[in-house]
Design brief:
By secondary structure, this protein is an alpha+beta fold. The chain is 23% helix and 32% strand. It folds into two domains: 2-80 and 223-260, no CATH class; 85-219, no CATH class. The chain has helices at residues 2-26, 225-260, and strands at 36-42, 45-49, 65-68, 71-78, 85-87, 94-97, 102-105, 111-114, 120-121, 127-128, 135-136, 145-150, 155-160, 167-171, 173-176, 184-187, 190-192, 201-204, 212-215, 217-219. The strands form nine sheets. A three-stranded antiparallel sheet has the order 8-7-11, with no helix packed on it. A three-stranded antiparallel sheet has the order 12-13-14, with no helix packed on it. A two-stranded antiparallel ribbon has the order 1-4. Helix 1 (2-26) packs antiparallel against helix 2.
Length: 261
């Protein structure tokens, strides 16, 4: 009874899909989070009669008899669409309007990439993430600074106590990728580059197809509650249908065993 095993692959796939949906819903309020979708692929087919074979009467069979052996989750893709941008009044909060990622230095020395611009400064005035990872290129805010301004192109200026004009203290840059879906998620709103993502294109915000920066704003998650709830109901119904196939297959096996007995 191949249907039992085929239906089980469908149930396993829908379980994975529900896990993905649950993670999306859990991150509805995560800054810069991008929705993930599960994509399915069919498995191999059992060929009972190949198309083009010769029938007993000497004719050629136009179509064959092939039975599929189920499905699997082939990939999980992130939708890098723009999330809503909300005002926070915090001058160290930055939102990217358009494509691109902020760059941070991870503990192992590699570069991580994030859309979460909720930055802070440490005791030395260095700009960093909430988890303590330094932003790259490095920005150090003077201890006697009374204000900080970050332009749409990433130019960082500070107003120093006793000085009338602000002075430039650094230049933030963004990184872009040919295939953002190839980035490896690391948790903590971070990604790392892989061979699939390609090498990063680092440039000034607003150039090379990269977005611009908005100071005092944060990008919210692009998760749609309505879409995720509809997908959840669809996954539940599909799982239920597969379970009925298993139940029907069990009943057919029971009938066959009774007849053989």
């Amino acid at each position: 009874m191949q249907a039992l095993y085929t239906a089980s692959t469908g149930m396993t796939g829908q379980q994975t899909r529900i896990d993905v949906i649950a993670n999306n819903l859990a991150n509805m309020n995560t800054s810069g989070f991008k929705t993930v979708q599960a994509n399915f692929q069919d498995l191999v087919y059992q060929t009972l009669s190949a198309p083009g074979t010769t029938a007993p009467g000497g004719t050629t069979v136009p179509t064959g008899v092939e039975v599929g052996l189920g499905t699997k989750v082939g990939s999980t893709d992130r939708l890098f669409t723009q999330g809503s941008i909300v005002q926070t009044q915090n001058p160290l909060n930055l939102a990217i309007s358009g494509n691109g990622f902020f760059q941070v230095t991870l503990p192992d020395g590699t570069i991580g990439y994030t859309r979460d611009g909720s930055f802070q400064v440490n005791g030395q005035g260095q700009l960093m993430t909430a988890n303590g990872y330094l932003v790259q290129p490095a920005i150090t805010v003077p201890q006697n600074a009374t204000g900080i301004t970050i332009g749409a192109d990433g130019t960082v200026s500070a107003t120093i106590a006793g000085q009338q004009n602000a002075q430039q203290i650094g230049q933030l840059q963004l990184a872009g990728f040919a295939n953002p879906n190839g980035l490896a998620p690391r948790g903590q709103n971070l990604f790392t580059a892989t061979q699939a993502s390609g090498t990063p294109l680092v440039a000034t915000a607003g150039l090379q197809g990269l977005g611009t920066l908005q100071q005092g704003y944060l990008e919210q998650s692009n998760v749609s509650l309505v879409d995720e709830m509809v997908a959840l109901i669809d996954a539940e119904r599909a799982y239920e249908a597969m379970s009925k196939v298993v139940s029907s297959g069990d009943q057919m096996l029971q009938m066959a065993n009774t007849m053989n007995g």
